[in-house]
Amino acid sequence: MKRPLDRPQSIGPHIRMLLPTLTPLETSVVETALGQPGFSEGTALRDLAQAAGVSEPMVVKVAKKLGFNGFREFRTALVLYNALPGSDLHRELAPEDTSSEITRKVFDTSIQAVQETLAILDMEAFDRAVGLIHGARQRDLYGIGGSAQIARDVAHKLLRIGVRASVFDDAHMMLMSAALLGDGDVAIAFSHSGTTTAVIEPLQLARRRGVRTIVITNYAGSPLAEAADVVLCSTAQGSPLLGENAAARIAQLVICDALFAAIAQRDLPQAERNLNATMGAVSARRQVK
């Protein structure tokens, strides 16, 4: 993965992805830096440490855990990111907001999530995921709640081009699925937080059985990501009301659309034949005026 400063738009998402790897005290350093008014190149290490209630070495430690050389590079990165157009798009809903303002905030949040996800997308990991899914004997998809809906969307798209996949959204069924997978199969797990036990356990089981595992999540340092051969990360900023799940779901769907297109490209003539066949099979179910 490229260093954070290589692409300023990736700085915010890069930091958010790694938050699960930090302790609560370390997280407070990041939150203080992000929320400190007037944070700039002139902000001293001492000032940030005092504001966060930690030692100066702790601030340096956090900066290095996030992939920076030290505090100065961490400070420069945040200043660069905050100066980007649209970095302040993420705003909370207010009681006085009009429908137009609410719509704009929701759309802006989702657009930003998609743009920042593209900025951090690991293309080497993406290509590996495409190859594993395309060449798999069996493809089992795991997800709970909203993540299960993403899994179903992926399975639906793949079926349209003749690539079969099974979706499991029950904890027991996922474990049963994982217990039957083997060499040549792939397990794909979807989880925004990457901390859902019901999804982590079957993925770990699948991996112990020699199955290749793919994860789509919002956090690269999550327990679910640790059980994966390939990790594809979406990113979205948190918000008490708007939340990050909704925007991250949009970003994850776009990642899956890109996977679908790349898988279809592996054998485009066959994909087009299967697409015509599946479209033709359901065409009679559509009303014609």
Keywords:
57% helix; transcription regulation; 5 strands; MurR/RpiR family transcriptional regulator; single chain; alpha/beta; 289 residues; Rossmann fold; 5-stranded parallel beta sheet; Arc Repressor Mutant, subunit A
Largest sheet: 5 strands, parallel
- Strand percentage lies at 5-15%
Number of helical stretches of at least 4 residues = 13
CATH architecture title of the largest domain: 3-Layer(aba) Sandwich
Mean pLDDT metric: 88
The run of helices and strands is HHHHHHHEHEHEHEHEHH
Q: Could you name the CATH topology of the largest domain?
A: Rossmann fold
- How do the strands line up in the largest sheet? 2-1-3-4-5
Oligomer: single chain
CATH class of the largest domain: Alpha Beta
Pfam families: HTH_6 (PF01418), SIS (PF01380)
Keywords: DNA-binding, Transcription, Transcription regulation
Domain SIS: 129-269
Domain HTH rpiR-type: 9-85
Structure explained in plain terms:
This protein is of the alpha/beta class and 289 residues long. It has two domains: 4-82, Orthogonal Bundle (Arc Repressor Mutant, subunit A); 120-281, Glucose-6-phosphate isomerase like protein, domain 1 (Rossmann fold), CATH 3.40.50. Helices cover 57% and strands 8% of the residues. The protein has 13 helices and five strands. It has helices spanning 11-18, 24-35, 45-52, 56-65, 71-82, 99-120, 123-135, 146-160, 171-180, 197-208, 223-226, 245-266, 268-283, and strands at 139-142, 166-168, 186-191, 212-217, 230-233. A five-stranded parallel sheet has the order 2-1-3-4-5, with helices on both faces. The longest helix is centred in the middle third of the chain and has 22 residues, at 99-120. The protein is globular. The mean pLDDT is 88.
